[in-house]
Amino acid sequence: MSMGNVRSAPIEENECQIGEQFDLGKWSITLDSYQLDSAIHISDPELEYDFDAEEGKCFLELQLTVTNNDNTERLFIDEYSGRSPVIELFYDDEYAYKYESNGITSTKKFQYLNWSPLATESGSMTFYLPLQILDSENSIVLKMKQGNSIASIKLR
């Protein structure tokens, strides 16, 4: 007995711009801005702090606005359920850096708390990268993937 050809849905990749809202799964996301530097300052309602990168490292900080469009509570960054977007940076079209929950965020809700339906949060997510990326002119592309949808934003 043959099951025939099983087809998966095609991957949809959308090129987006900084400041442009896009939908990804049950989320609406806007990359408001980004900063690439050897130090970052984070201002949280509970405290403010500065981070200096270790020697040979730098930070890429993303400022995001995110809305939960689901009809149930959800975590935005939830590595265990598979329901949250995969967030990666691609440097020089060759090197991939995946955002992990041990990254720095200015908003606890981005990682630790369930969001109510239709809740919107703004905050930052920060990647820890090799210093040569800071000093280079090579491309950096942010990709967010959920299911068969990919949003791609060229940072430089």
Mean of residue pLDDT values? 84
DSSP E strands, number: 12
CATH topology: Immunoglobulin-like
Task: Give helix and strand order, one letter per element, not per position.
Answer: EEEEEEEEEEHEE
Query: How helical, in percent, are the residues?
Result: under 10%
Number of helices: 1
> What fraction of residues sit in β-strands?
over 45%
Using the alpha-carbon principal axes, give the shape: globular
Are there runs of 5+ residues with pLDDT below 50, and where?
none
Instruction: Work out the count of structural domains.
Output: 1
Given this structure, which CATH class is correct? Mainly Beta
Largest sheet: 5 strands, mixed
Give the N-terminus to C-terminus distance in angstroms. 52 Å
Task: Just name the CATH architecture.
Answer: Sandwich
| Radius of gyration, CA atoms, in whole angstroms | 17 Å
Largest beta sheet: strand ordering: 1-12-11-7-8
Computed structural class: mainly beta
Keywords: Signal
Organism: Popillia japonica (Japanese beetle)
Protein name: DUF4352 domain-containing protein
InterPro entries: Immunoprotect_excell_Ig-like (IPR029050)
